[in-house]
């Protein structure tokens, strides 16, 4: 009888905790960028909830809305590949395609997207390109992600200072990184 009462008590407590609703999220990182030509804002976030739940990614909201984590509205990628525009937002994910685990070095890296998918989110076309994990990680060291202390802009370059790679296992530190600006030509001009 005591065992049955104990099991029933555990079941009731579990059901009660589930009925309390969605977990409270503690937002550790929150970045936003206005999408030019629209009233929309692109947010990048990282948050933690009850029972070690982690939510991170991108979400599009109207600029009049307060930021709120809604997993059903999360964009399907985890890295932006272009500056967001009113017409579309492009992002990247990767998948194994037989290049994970023990087979990593047995496969040939493929540097082009393996799949491209289009969807609509808040009236904006979302383009998601899926790359082979090995090809993506080896091409231009794509799995490195840097945070920096400050930057300076000149008419032809951007200078980043005190950079740390926060993505790689053995991340490196750079005192300075210079990126040369370039003009994009369109219509053959």
TrEMBL record:
Protein name per UniProt: Lipoprotein
Organism: Chryseobacterium cheonjiense
PROSITE patterns: PROKAR_LIPOPROTEIN (PS51257)
Taxonomic lineage of the native organism: Bacteria, Pseudomonadati, Bacteroidota, Flavobacteriia, Flavobacteriales
């Amino acid at each position: 009888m005591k065992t049955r009462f104990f099991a029933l008590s555990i079941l009731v407590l579990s059901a009660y905790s589930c009925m309390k609703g969605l977990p409270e999220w503690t937002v550790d990182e929150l970045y936003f960028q206005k999408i030019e030509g629209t009233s929309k804002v692109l947010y990048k976030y990282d948050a933690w909830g009850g029972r070690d739940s982690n939510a991170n990614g991108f979400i599009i909201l109207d600029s009049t809305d307060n930021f709120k984590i809604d997993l059903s509205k999360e964009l399907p990628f985890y890295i932006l590949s272009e500056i967001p525009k009113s017409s579309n937002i492009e992002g990247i994910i990767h998948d194994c395609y037989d290049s994970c685990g023990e087979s990593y070095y047995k496969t040939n890296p493929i540097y082009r997207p393996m799949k491209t998918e289009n969807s609509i989110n808040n009236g904006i076309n979302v383009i998601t390109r899926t790359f082979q994990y090995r090809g993506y990680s080896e091409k231009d060291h794509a799995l490195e992600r840097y945070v920096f202390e400050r930057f300076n802009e000149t008419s032809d370059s951007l200078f980043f200072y005190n950079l740390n790679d926060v993505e790689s296992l053995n991340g490196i530190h750079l005192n300075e990184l210079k990126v040369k600006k370039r003009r994009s030509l369109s219509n053959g001009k």
